[in-house]
Amino acid sequence: MSVRRFDLAFDRLPSVTAFGGGHGLYASLSALRRVTDRLTAVVTVADDGGSSGRLRAEFDCLPPGDLRMALAALCGDDHWGRTWADVLQSRFGGEGSLGGHAVGNLLILGLWEKFGDPVAGLDMVAELLGAKGRVLPMSSVPLEIVAEVIGVDPLRPDEISEVRGQAQVAKNPGEVHSVRLEPHDPPARPEVIEVVRETDYVVLGPGSWFTSVIPHLLVPDLAEALTETSAQRFLVLNLRPAEETDGYSASQHLEILADHAPRLRLDAVIADESFARDDRHLANYAASLGADLVVADLAMRDGSARHDPLRLASIFAELMGV
C-alpha cells in the first residue's frame, strides 16, 4: 500500500482534532492517542436515548453519554486512569430511578451543576482521569436531529416521512435521505472554533453517518471553520454500512457527505479494504472532494465491525509523518 504523507514541519507532536460521537469517535481517539498527546475531541450533542436522553429531558442539559465515552477513550494508561475509565462506563443496575444510568453521566452532570459551564465540568473530569487530550461539545445547546426518511411505512414505500430524534433516526426501518438540526442555527462552542482554526489535522468519522458525523457539518459556524481551516482533513469511513446507511456503498457515504456539506474539501479518505474492495467509484468520489484514497486492513481480528486501534494508528502516523 502506498500512502501519501501529509506531514508538516513539527518541532513537537502534531495537534489533532477529532469529530464524531459514540463508538465511532471512541475508535478514532483510541487510535489517535497512540500518535499524539495533543488531542481534542469534538462531540455531537443530539443524543436523546437511554441514560443521556433521560438526563437531558429532566435537567435540560447537554446529553453527556457521547462526551463520557470520549473522555474514557482519552484516559491515562496507568492504573488510576484505567480504573476511572471503567467507573465512568459502568452502569447502575435495578429498576429504580438510577437503573441504566452510566456513573460517568451522573458525574459529568453533577460537575455541570457545580460549575454552571459544560466545558469547565468536562475539563475537571479530564483532569481526574489524567486524560491525554480535551473533550468539547460541538454546540452550546442540546440539538435535535430531524431526518427525511423514505419507506418508514411499508405500505407506502415511496413516501417521505419526517423522523425526529437521534434514537428514532438510528433505528428507523426506512432509508434516511437527509438530516437537519433543530434549532437550525445552533451556536458552536467558541472553544471548538478556536481549536479548528489552530489544529494541524482534522479527523471526521468513523461513526453513524447521519447522527454522529454529518451533524458537525450542520452547525453553521463550525461548518465554516472546517471549510476554511488550514489543517489537513481526513475522513475515516466505517468498516461496513451501519444501521442508518444499511445497503449504502462506500462511495455513497461520500456522496451523502458532499450533499450536506458541498463546500467541504478533504485531503485523505481512509477506508478498510473489505468495504472499498468492490466499489469501483470510490477513488473518483474521493478525488472529487480533493482527497487521496487510502485503503488498508483496519478491522479487528475477531470479525466484529470495529476498527483495530493499532492498525488505524499506523495509518494516522504514516499520513502525519509521526
- How would you describe the shape? globular
**CATH topology value of the largest domain:** Rossmann fold
Instruction: Give, in spatial order, the strands making up the sheet with the most strands.
Output: 3-2-1-7-8-9-10
Largest sheet: 7 strands, parallel
Q: Count all strands and give the number.
A: 10
Architecture overview:
This protein has two domains: 16-144 and 177-320, 3-Layer(aba) Sandwich (Rossmann fold), CATH 3.40.50; 145-176, no CATH class. It starts with 14 loop residues before the first strand and ends with a helix. Helix 3 runs antiparallel to helix 4 (79-89). The strands form two sheets. A seven-stranded parallel beta sheet has the order 3-2-1-7-8-9-10, sandwiched between helices. The protein has a three-stranded antiparallel beta sheet with strand order 5-4-6. The longest helix has 13 residues, at 103-115. The protein has 14 helices and ten strands. Strand 8, helix 11 and strand 9 form a beta-alpha-beta unit. With 322 residues, the protein is of the alpha/beta class. It has helices spanning 22-32, 50-59, 65-73, 79-89, 103-115, 118-129, 166-171, 190-198, 209-213, 220-228, 250-260, 273-276, 282-288, 309-320; strands at residues 15-20, 38-43, 134-137, 144-150, 160-164, 175-182, 201-204, 232-236, 268-272, 292-296.
